[in-house]
């Protein structure tokens, strides 16, 4: 079924969710590229991030079967129809059991086919010339870029009007409270508000999209702050295992750090690793402190530096030596490694939108006006 859909290009190129060799990082990279280009060109980047309410549970089955009939052979259609229809549920609470009831909407929770069926259901969403679409399953971003903030929001509103009609036709309910409108720009002010079903979408200076927090100036400051808080909380639960402990070997402590703490900040490091050094240092400082606890090395304080002059005081170990002795990379080094590995796989990708990321410059090669680094600058480190 998957091969038939891929061979016939049933799904739009902008849909990255639940597809082989398509990751959240690929999709966020596209969004970050669009924002970065607009910042270099002194433009307004008006973005709406839509949240569908109970996406998998509210799929209209008759509508889904109608779409499947048009894109799959009759043999597969009949098989899928038998899989989706005549399903019943029953609730048990203690010794009481409810009567059986027919499931009238939604795809089976946990079913291996459910993500693919949902992708088929939303595969014909409207698009417009003045916007960029980035989908990952039920997470949708719509981007409009222009020098004039009024035109940017107008282009975005045209798309939202079409998507609102489409949602109504196919019985999809939008969660207005979780949908967000963000203006990415270095200029003062924001783009005019936009709405869906005459309900204004709440504005926000930051948005968490596919696990990465984007702020209006794309500094990644809020993302680092959020990750540092998460790391601190996780570290507190592991403090008895990572600090001085005669029952835990050094090798085990390092393994705990690499498996339970490091993955928290390495997610998306391909994109935020090029941020300003002061922002990256929030994560680097955490790693320095944690490695000192693991190795039982004295912290960097004025008192410890003074005590070095005393004969029996433990010698101070620099962060560089600590990283080298423990065979650990710095955040900057990890960023370079992660992005180069990520970039090397783009050229031969089957999706043209992902292949388009395989460039040494931002999309359309805008003139570099800003002093900041972008993620592709990690390739020359």
What keyword list fits this structure?
2 domains; 4-stranded antiparallel beta sheet; globular; 43% helix; transferase; nucleotidyltransferase; DNA/RNA_pol_sf; two-stranded antiparallel ribbon; 381 residues; RNA-directed DNA polymerase activity; alpha+beta
Number of strands: 12
Order of helices and strands: HHEHHEEEEHEEHEEEEEHHHHHHHHH
Gross morphology is: globular
Q: What class, by secondary structure content?
A: alpha+beta
Q: What characterizes the major β-sheet?
A: 4 strands, antiparallel
Fraction of helical residues:
40-55%
- Strands in their spatial order, largest beta sheet: 6-7-1-8
Question: Nearest-angstrom radius of gyration?
Answer: 25 Å
Distance between the termini: 43 Å
The number of helices is 15
Assembly type: single chain
The fraction of residues in strands falls at 5-15%
Mean pLDDT: 91
Q: Low-confidence spans: pLDDT under 50, at least 5 residues?
A: 307-313
Number of domains: 2
Written description of the protein model:
Strand 6 and strand 7 (139-146) form a beta hairpin. The protein folds into 2 domains: 1-218 and 345-367, no CATH class; 221-343, no CATH class. The longest helix has 21 residues, at 149-169. By secondary structure, it is α+β, with helices and mostly antiparallel strands. The model is unreliable at 307-313 (pLDDT under 50). Helices cover 43% and strands 12% of the residues. The chain contains 15 helices and 12 strands. The strands form 5 sheets. It has a 4-stranded antiparallel sheet.
